[in-house]
Amino acid sequence: MTMIAEKDVLHRIEEGSAVYYDAANGVAGQTYPIGTGQMPVDNITDLLAILIQRGLHKVILLSDITLTAGMQGYKFIGLRRVTQLVNLNGQEVGGSYFENLRITGAVNWADSYGPIFKECDLDSVTAFSAMAYLCRVPNGDTLTIGAGHSSYIHDMHFDDATVNANGCNRLDIWNGHGKIELAGATGGAINILMNGDLTLAASCTGGTINLYGDFHLTNNSAGSTVNDYRKLKETAPTQGTATQNWQAAEADIVQVGADNTLNEIGAIEVSMRNMAGNVILRMYKQINGVEDMCRYGVWAAGSPDVGVVLVNSNWKVNEVVRVTAESDNAADNGQAIDYEYIITPL
Fold it and tell me: How many CB atoms lie within 10 A of CB 43?
């Protein structure tokens, strides 16, 4: 058998395992070859009849489709990359599988198994109670979870999208990416492992929200229990002022961190705006139980750069970092040195 003949046989075998649907260019009827790739069927009534008659469970979509009847346990495949639109229309789709499609409408199922969505765009889908992986919620769209139901979402990308928990029983988002606003969490358990940006809306008033991963969080929730297990958590800057007789002797500006406690220092900054003399700035930290000087620098009197950055990186420390100043001008005695630092517990 030639290679061309083999390809033709394989094509006919593959074609024979599915029913093709094209509302725009198909034909009505149930007699073979209607429903094949060369002669797609154009309506749902005949589509269902052909599936049953031929004992098939796969539908290849060549056009958009709005479900007008229950389609339980079928596999819907888009022929082109996320082009065909499936409007679920609230019809029963328990146990069905959707791949490479755009999905809209309300999810509905009563069987023991919910539908599965793979590599689909979920476009304003409501009553979502299903499993989805490698899918996307397009920019500005809202994915509304079914009230009182459970949903499991894996490896999904969110293009500045909203997920309305809608009082669901459980929602798992594992390996999410992008920008999400979570709204409507009023009960149940929500688990989110992601990277990117997450905002918890003020409409999150109940339930438990567990957060994992490495992402920026804006927490506007108003009553939900938020357990923050992220790798790195944002910490608001700590600001203050130290007033000492800086010329009389070296004196502490601030101590950052705690002994025998692992922290990550993201920044330490001090201001010389009030100082008249040359100021020596030092930093100390214990190394093997003995405090050593880790940094030494001189701010020259009259320098325009009055804001001095002492740390500008993620410095992991397990001891106190002590920052001091010493001036050569008596006019600096009693002056205030402002400071600011960012520290994150690890």
Answer: 16
The residues, ordered by sequence, that sit 6+ positions from 331 with a Cβ below 8 Å of its Cβ are 247, 276, 277
Start-to-end CA span in the chain (Å): 66
Amino acid at 209: I
Distances (CA, A) of 276 to 22, 250, 279, 298, 300: 82, 16, 9, 13, 9
Closest among 151, 188, 156, 187 to 171, alpha carbons compared: 151
- Looking at the DSSP bridge assignments, the partners of residue 307 are 271
Closest CA to 82 of 138, 131, 151, 33: 138
Cα separation, 256 vs 324, in Å, equals 12
- Using CA atoms, how far apart are residues 145 and 142, in angstroms rounded to an integer? 10
- Return the bridge partners of 293, or none: 284
| 260-290 pLDDT per residue, tens | 999 889 999 999 999 999 999 999 999 999 9
Please answer whether residues 129 and 151 qualify as being in contact, where contact means their C-beta atoms are separated by less than 8 angstroms: yes
HEC string of 246-297 equals CCCCCEEEEEECCCCCCEEEEEEEEECCCCCCCEEEEEEEEECCEEEEEEEE
- 345: helix, strand or coil: strand
Give percent of the chain with pLDDT exceeding 90: 85
Task: For 172-225, write each residue's pLDDT tens digit.
Answer: 999 999 999 999 999 999 999 999 999 999 999 999 999 999 888 999 999 999
Report helix, strand and coil shares of the chain as percent, to nearest 5.
10, 50, 40
pTM confidence score: 0.71
Buried b (16+ CB within 10 A) or exposed e, 191-203: bbbbebebbbbeb
Domains of the chain: 3-182 (no CATH), 238-345 (2.60.120)
